[in-house]
Specification:
Blueprint lengths: L4 E3 L12 E2 L15 E4 L3 H12 L4 H4 L3 E5 L6 H6 L2 E4 L3 H20 L12 H12 L6 E2 L7 E2 L14 H10 L3 E11 L8 E6 L8 E9 L5 E3 H4 L6 E2 L6 E2 L6 E2 L3 E5 L5 E2 L3 E6 L5 E2 L5 E10 L1 H9 L4 H10 L4 H18 L5 E7 L3 H7 L3 H15 L5 E6 L2 E6 L4 H23 L5 E7 L6 H14 L2
Parallel strand pairs: 1-2, 1-3, 3-4, 4-5
Antiparallel strand pairs: 6-7, 8-19, 9-17, 10-11, 10-14, 10-15, 12-13, 15-16, 17-18, 20-22, 20-23, 21-22
């Protein structure tokens, strides 16, 4: 394996004996035996452009490769440093590079398992994102920044959004709503409800005319004569405090007088008031909003769920799922959860429900692509027909991806649903072994639908358990 390739468009620049390529040479074939790509880091903008070119490449064999930043000194732009896997100092490159390649080898090993899923089409934005996370096995932690209006970036995935109409935060929250990512709140922030900018100026305005041209003065209360007025009214020519009502000089606060409050005067309309009206003005679109109407968002860090890890390898929407969609009328996952909640509520209210939830997974469906090629469609269609024989019109099925499914068999006990799935498993294995001399591993587990059913926990536990059996 080549230790590294140096990405640099300047033909005059080299990095010792390390092979150099330019951006237009980023191809899977050229990088097939490369452990990492070294990016010049002395110019932050140029480095980010090169990182973006890599991350937006069509092939996962390119955009997932570990990136190493080479710099002259120890001070590195934080966003740039967080966008790559490792940073090395130019003077010690030979010694450090060996250590770096050893550290990034797990990423390369993860990428290799995707080779059997190669195709001619580019991965979707969401699939690129979760594959970057899965290959590094790290959470995405937001970094505060003034570089973009949203105020927060996720450096590892930010290059994916350079030419996208949607934001990283929106995409991450959408994937979290689909249980592909798990969100953990680390902060809460206010955003403009017009443009979504995080940069807001909270300012006090006049309660009468709305102007922000205000001056503030302290109120002074003279204990002896009970006179109260602005401090400016108590200040004499010598700068001392003297009561304008009784002419007594005030010397000691708390003894002669106190300052109970402040008063604000508007220089536009001359209105005086002890209260002001606070508004938020957006630095980006310059519109103003009431604070209570601002867009309040949780700022989360994200990590892949078991479902997300599964989808990172097998994809989010693939061939087998499309055939199932046509044959079985798959329902969207959110609708499936809604129906499941209704069935749980029915069981609680009437105590008559005997329905079952089944989690089902095909472990090695990807191997069929390698063996069958274009014949895979016929085989998958036949498997779908077996599903139809087991499922009734009242049963529901949803797919996370082409390997993992959730079924709800209405008014079917765990015992009976287990028997039905055992028949399905046997029939699938019979088709595969008799005509194709190969196996299709099917794992499933049935649960009674009741108020104690914790759907998401069951999904995570099931995927973790079946992953461990591979």
């Amino acid at each position: 394996m080549k230790q590294a390739i140096y990405l640099n468009n300047d033909t005059a620049t080299s990095l010792g004996d390390i092979p150099r390529i330019s951006e237009h040479e980023l191809t899977p074939s050229l990088l097939s035996d490369t452990a990492c790509i070294i990016v010049e880091g002395n110019n932050a903008n140029a480095a980010l452009d090169m990182i973006t070119a890599i991350r937006l490449h069509d092939s996962p064999m390119v955009y997932l490769l570990p990136l190493v930043l080479v710099v002259d000194g120890t001070t590195v732009n934080q966003t740039l440093q967080s966008s790559v896997d490792e940073v090395i100092i130019r003077d010690d490159i030979d010694e450090q590079l060996t250590q770096v390649i050893s550290k990034v080898s797990p990423v390369c090993d993860w990428i290799k398992q995707l080779e059997r899923f190669k195709n001619d089409s580019a991965d979707s934005l969401s699939l690129r994102l979760i594959r970057l996370m899965a290959s590094r096995d790290i959470p995405l932690i937001p970094q505060a920044t003034t570089a973009i209006p949203e105020g927060y970036i996720f450096p590892l995935i930010q290059p994916l959004f350079q030419s996208q109409d949607t934001s990283a935060l929106y995409t991450l929250n959408r994937l979290a709503s689909q249980h592909i990512l798990l969100a953990k709140k680390i902060n809460r922030a206010h955003f403009c409800n017009h443009c979504g900018s995080a940069f807001l100026n909270f300012k006090e305005t006049c309660v009468q005319c709305g102007s922000d041209d205000l001056v503030e003065d302290e109120l002074v209360h003279h204990f002896k004569c009970a006179h109260t007025a602005e401090k400016s009214a108590f200040t004499n020519a010598q700068g001392e405090l003297q009561c304008p009502k009784c002419d007594e000089t005030l010397k000691h606060i708390g003894v002669d007088y106190d300052k109970p409050s402040t008063i604000t005067q508007c220089l536009t309309c001359s209105h005086k008031s002890q209260s002001t009206h606070v508004v938020a003005e957006c630095f980006n679109c310059h519109r103003t909003s009431e604070p209570e109407y601002l867009d309040k968002r949780d700022i989360n860090q994200f990590k892949l769920s078991s479902i997300g890890m599964n989808a990172a390898i097998y994809g989010l929407d693939t061939f087998f799922t499309n055939i199932l969609e046509n044959e079985l009328q798959l329902i969207p996952h959110q609708e499936f959860i809604r129906f499941l909640d209704i069935e749980v509520a029915r069981s609680v209210r009437y105590k008559l429900s005997n329905s079952s939830l089944i989690l089902l997974r095909f472990d090695n469906i990807h191997e069929l692509y390698d063996k069958l090629g274009s014949r895979a469609q016929d085989v998958f269609t036949e498997i779908c027909h077996l599903f139809k024989k087991v499922l009734r019109e009242t049963d529901l099925i949803t797919a996370y991806n082409e390997t993992f499914f959730s079924l709800m068999m209405i008014e079917t006990s765990v015992e009976n649903s287990t028997l039905a799935l055992e028949r399905l498993k046997a029939a699938v294995q019979d088709i595969m072994s008799s005509s194709l001399e190969t196996a299709l591993e099917l794992q499933f587990k049935a649960y009674h639908v009741s108020s104690e059913l914790g759907y998401q926990s069951l999904v995570n536990d099931f995927l973790e358990a079946t992953n461990n059996t591979e």
